[in-house]
């Protein structure tokens, strides 16, 4: 596994819709290596997820994992999940404001509206069809990664630009209030 450079805002690859992966491609050693590289890169960078276009690959693959992540101590654990050709379906009209950041938009955070319950349909890295229901902050994480695959960054979803903040200022002025909102959200709807 190799850690790859993460593309940052301004690179056109982040604004393109990634293409679907065929079953034959998914089984190929090259695509399996890309998946391993994505996992290594996400872990090295301390991210909760990473989409293929964030390492310059325009294929519909993303990885998600939260395991005692010091950047996101308020996020519930998410076992390593590889999603190929994912489709997100909101399960109800419930939304919540979630403060998000992104490895491709370094040192910036902002508040976005995310669905509180979604069904994620995808292939796993072995090509097996899966459907998971994700709720709360975890639902937001999956929506964020699928947005990447559609060429959308979290800053595109920020409706109130006054919520934009650097990591330092988030930690200093906003983290405590957000963590409390996140805790209540997890208690109300689950992870």
Query: Do you know the CATH topology?
Result: Peptide Deformylase
Could you list the spans in which at least 5 consecutive residues all have pLDDT below 50?
none
The global form is globular
> What is the number of strand segments?
7
The number of helical runs is: 5
Q: Keywords, please?
A:
about 190 residues; Peptide Deformylase; five-stranded antiparallel beta sheet; about 30% strand
Quick overview:
The chain is built from 5 helices and 7 strands.
Report what the structure shows.
With 191 residues, the chain is of the alpha+beta class. The chain has one domain: Peptide Deformylase (Alpha-Beta Complex). Helix content is 33%, strand content 29%. The chain is built from five helices and seven strands, in the order H-H-E-E-E-E-E-E-E-H-H-H. It has a five-stranded antiparallel beta sheet, with helices on both faces. It has a two-stranded antiparallel ribbon with strand order 4-5. Strand 4 and strand 5 form a beta hairpin. It is globular and about 45 Å long. It starts with 22 loop residues before the first helix and ends with a helix.
Give the topology.
Blueprint: H1 23-27, H2 29-45, E1 49-51, E2 61-66, E3 78-90, E4 95-102, E5 105-115, E6 117-123, E7 129-135, H3 136-149, H4 154-157, H5 167-189
Antiparallel strand pairs: 1-2, 2-3, 3-6, 4-5, 6-7
């Amino acid at each position: 596994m190799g850690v790859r450079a993460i593309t940052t805002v301004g690179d056109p690859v982040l604004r393109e819709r990634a293409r679907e992966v065929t079953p034959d491609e998914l089984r190929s050693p090259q695509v399996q290596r890309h998946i391993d590289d994505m996992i290594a890169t996400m872990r090295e960078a301390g991210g909760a997820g990473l989409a293929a276009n964030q390492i310059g690959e325009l294929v519909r693959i993303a990885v998600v994992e939260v395991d005692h992540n010091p950047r996101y101590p308020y996020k519930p654990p998410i076992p390593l999940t590889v999603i190929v050709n994912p489709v997100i379906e909101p399960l109800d009209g419930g939304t919540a404001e979630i403060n998000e950041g992104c490895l491709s938009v370094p040192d910036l955070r902002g508040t976005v509206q995310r669905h509180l319950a979604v069904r994620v349909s995808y292939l796993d890295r072995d090509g097996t069809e899966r459907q998971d229901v994700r709720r709360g902050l975890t639902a937001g994480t999956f929506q964020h990664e699928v947005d990447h695959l559609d060429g959308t960054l979290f800053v595109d979803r920020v409706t109130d630009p006054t919520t934009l903040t650097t990591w330092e200022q988030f930690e200093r002025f906003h983290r405590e209030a957000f963590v409390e909102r996140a805790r209540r959200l997890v208690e109300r709807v689950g992870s």
